[in-house]
Design goal:
Blueprint lengths: L3 H4 L7 E2 L4 H11 L3 E5 L5 E6 H9 L11 H4 L1 E2 L10 H8 L6 E6 L2 E7 H14 L4
Parallel strand pairs: 1-2
Antiparallel strand pairs: 2-3, 3-4, 5-6
Helix pairs in contact: 5-6
């Protein structure tokens, strides 16, 4: 059975919790993902920041040219994450529910990477093709 660790992107950008909002927006836009994991000084996962979170902050009344909003100010705390040992099929079942489209992959409180719904769909579709499904 295919596992998350075999599909995850381990080269994913990480956002420092103390990074300015403008830096976070640039990093997310350059990443190709809809959001990125947020880490602390010990490289541990502390949150998740999505494009939607950033957009909300950029248009909010509290944001203006002299604003000093950081990632920590607008990130979602305690994000859902998955183990690298989780099977892709189990993750697909989780993704079929009302869940995020992206999951940080964490082991022993350390961020290893990220996996997306697209990666899971592609892997499952490839498995079906390889066994002759039409």
């Amino acid at each position: 059975m295919l596992k998350v660790k075999e599909l995850m992107d381990s080269q994913v950008a990480r956002l420092p919790a103390n990074a300015p909002l403008t830096t976070a927006v640039d990093t997310i836009l350059d990443s190709g993902y809809l959001g990125l994991p947020v880490i602390d000084e010990a490289q541990q996962l502390v949150g998740f920041l999505s494009e939607q979170d950033c957009l909300r902050a950029l248009v909010s009344d509290s944001y203006h040219c002299d604003s000093h909003l950081t990632v920590r100010d607008i990130m979602r705390d305690s994000p859902l994450f998955v183990s690298p040992e989780l099977s892709v099929l189990e993750l697909a079942q989780m993704l079929g529910k009302d869940r995020p489209k992206l999951f940080p992959v964490v082991e022993e409180e350390r961020l290893l990477g990220m996996i997306s719904r697209t990666q899971v769909m592609r892997a499952l579709n490839d498995q079906l093709k390889s066994c002759g499904a039409v």
